[in-house]
Amino acid sequence: MALHSSCLAPIPLMLAIAGLTPAPALAQRVQDNAVTDAEDAFGSNDGGEELGIYGPTDVRGFSPIDAGNVRLEGLYIDRQGDLSPRLVEGNRIRIGPSAIGYPFPSPSGIVDYRLRTPGARLAVSAVTQVHSFGGALIEVDAQVPLAGETLGLGIGVSQAHNEYASGNNADILSTALIGVWRPAPSITIKPFWSRVRIVDEDIFPIIIGNGVTPPPRMRRRQFVGQHWADVETERFNYGAIGQGRIGDFNVRAGAFRSVTRILESHSVLLDAAPPGTLAARRVVGAPPRANASTSGEIGVSRGFGSKTAQHELMLTVRARAQQRRYGGSDSVSIGAAPFDTPLYVPRPTFDFGRSSDDRVRQWTVGVGYLGRITGLGQVSLGLQRSDYRKAVTAPGGPLPVSRDTPWLFNLAATVDITPVIALYGGYTRGLEESDVAPETASNRDEAPPAIRTRQIDAGVRLRLGPMTLIAGGFDIAKPYYGLDSANLFRDLGTITHRGVELSLNGSPVRGLTIVGGGVLLDARVSGVEVASGVIGKRPIGTATHTLIGSLDWRPVRFDAFSIDLGVEHRGPSLGDAANLVKVRPYTTIDLGVRYRFRLGGRAALARLRATNLFNSDGWDVNGNNAFTYIQSRQLIARLAVDF
């Protein structure tokens, strides 16, 4: 692995600063533990390890990120580029009970990220990691108090050489700066900046099926793409968050800029065939493209009431100005090759067309109420007015402007039947972005206009001693954008997701933490295309069920050591629009150990983890008759030290 000297330059300085600290700093990375930190089984990320039945790209069968339902410390951000792990320490999926009391929730959930806010004590954390695939990682995070608790600075830098299951690789440099300023006891301002640079990312192939069965099993960790077919990407996220109290009012505000620049882009498409049989191959190249958005939110609230009854009124304004440049791609055949066999060819000449440009302007004003009565429960109400405008300039000229000015509202409540039993329920209407056309679409990367959505959910929460059980159901309806028989991504009807979900978490005995859950999902499509038989009644790639179970055991008499186990089962799904291709279920098991010790007087953690321990084989669906295989077995060794 080549670690660039420019990336490593700040690391000795951070370690030298750490040596000046007069006392052991607060633990930073040594205590990262996704299982013990989980609030429920619905989805979280701590220290880079994900846990739960849902994630930022899949909640109840939909993607909060694609829908624009992203928050940074509770504030709206129109995220166009992945948030650097040096900038954020993790995220939480907010649905069901965790979304009640959350200002203006959205259908299909919210993913809420947390900044790595620097503290009032000098501290440095360093992490090194190696993978059995051959990848490696170095991370350093520092928090430097400049004026006690009044002013502080956080610095993060990491360099990674990633090796992936498909035999491809990438070099990733990530940097972040985070400040905290408290000009008064009741006011906090946090500016931040981050950059992620991905270079020489060889693109894994997408396997195009025959429309009848999934592709045959392939040899994993064998690169069958083209080394010149890579991607070069830059991602920037910067802005500021402020909160404070002015008289009787609480004020929270955030202003953000989020940018992704794709400097070079390719997609490799391989036709499936019996192993060793000649199969067609093509590469889709695209000119430079970019997504950028300036967004933010300001909210003012006032609370009043008594010790047993609290009320809060809030006024919120959200806005975004988004611009996307896409299109102009060219598809070139690179000749046939025996399926599942590397055969490299020289880079062909691409004839790029003109790009398209779209601009979105949106304002949303909302008023809300939150009430809590001790021993009875809480209620949340919200009403929003949104003004949405999207203008697209295609190669042939401007297209008609898309506008919408809907009224949106939400109502949710919990009722405490007893100290053990609580009922919850909610109804939400939203305006969301549709999924972007996938790479296999003839109009790849195109983003349709915003869509109106609605969600109903309800359930029960039981506090069973040290354990918490949540069981509920949901019903979500949205317009359905998908690939038609001509591979055009467009509105095909209405999609409805109905399901039941379960979460169980807690510590039944000292030293043992359990997190388990699952979702049973009935996803259906309706409309003219379904009625005419052009597409099937089930959406592409949506699993019928997902089950997860995780535990972390830390022996009481030897608490320096712990063992963790994770099991995930993903049910069957459909791989094509006609519903002919059945994708079989698969189960993966992860096993890990932690050992906490002192290294030179500093807290340290050695971690060894095997993912997909038994090397389960399976396919993920990337579009209509488009597949990639799941991650194969990998061993990860990690050393973290808090200075």
From TrEMBL:
Sequence ranges assigned to domain TonB-dependent receptor-like beta-barrel in this UniProt record: 221-613
Gene3D superfamilies found in the cross-reference section: TonB-dependent receptor, beta-barrel domain
Localization per record: Cell outer membrane
Protein name: TonB-dependent receptor
InterPro entries associated with the record: Beta-barrel_TonB, Beta-barrel_TonB_sf, TonB-dep_rcpt-like
Keyword terms of this UniProt record: Cell outer membrane, Ion transport, Iron, Iron transport, Membrane, Receptor, Signal, TonB box, Transmembrane, Transmembrane beta strand, Transport
Signal peptide as annotated in the record: 1-27
A Pfam match: TonB_dep_Rec_b-barrel
